[in-house]
Amino acid sequence: MNNLVNISHPSCFQKPPLALDIIVHLDMFGIILYAVLTLMATVSMLVYIEECAYIYRKVKTPKKTAIVWVNGAAPIIATMSCLGMWIPRATMFTDMTGATYFAIVVYKFLVLMLEECGGDEEFLKRCGKQKLRISTGPCCCCCPCLPHVAITRRTLFLLKLGCFQFAVLKMVFTILSIILWTNDNYNVADMEITGAAIWINPFVGILTIIALWPVAIMFVHLRSILQSQRIIPKYAMYQLVLILSQLQSAIINILAMNGTIACTPPYSSQARGYLMSQQLLILEMFIITLVTRLLYRRHYDPLPPADLYQDDNDQNAKFIQQTEAEESIP
User: Fold this and answer.
1) Which of 13, 252, 267, 315 could bridge 277 with an S-S bond, Cβ 3.0-4.6 Å?
2) Helices (H), 223-298
3) Element holding 127 (H helix, E strand)
4) CATH number for the domain including 266?
């Protein structure tokens, strides 16, 4: 019976409430919850600012630029979620801002892995005689028959281009969506064929998959080389931010649009779904910010120089072993 009352309430069919309306309707539990989540978002940003100051003093360019961008993913998303929690009518803009920032982070994480190797030239010098396995997720993990690709300047350029296109085009589509929204042509909940969202969002999803593929290829190739740089937990945190900020939010919003999440005045079903997603993200990004601080705020020792003759040494060792084995046969 309560569900029927909630569904028939006028606020279930209205726009999200204003910030002042939220403050008026908060009970004691709501006040404590909003205060704690706001404190978490604030601490996340303060930790990030302190970490940026440390990295700018201790790390050389251009590695420090990549580290600062990658580290900013969790606190920026937490801050945008906090703003969206307090100002529900700005949710579309806060979500787009966080997603646009993460699109840049995807490219910067690829750059970070290369800088951990010493830069593009050092990477080519160290891995130039090897080959890349491209049968990785999210595009081709089910295609192990794909040939391995030689590591060249052209290959490296294509990998960077695959990530860079997402950073640029995501920003372009974000601006386009805002322009269409001002003209009442863009609505996230409008799934009709005539709506702009049904065309823009799937295309952005395809661009996302294309951009994640080069990062996965490079990580698979460098995870053993960069093990001393703790690249595996760094990549895990990067993937966790991706899953929580994109997949988790998408699932909650789909459930809200289908009416699975009940309307609770002054929030409609969709606005309540956004609120739940934002509150979860603040808590999750706060934890990730603390973990990434442990991973990145440290003394950075360069990798040992690449042995240009390692392949020849390995072949000579195999030849010697084979010769000794043949001589030992009576």
Assistant:
1) 252
2) 231-242, 249-257, 269-296
3) helix 120-127
4) 1.20.1070
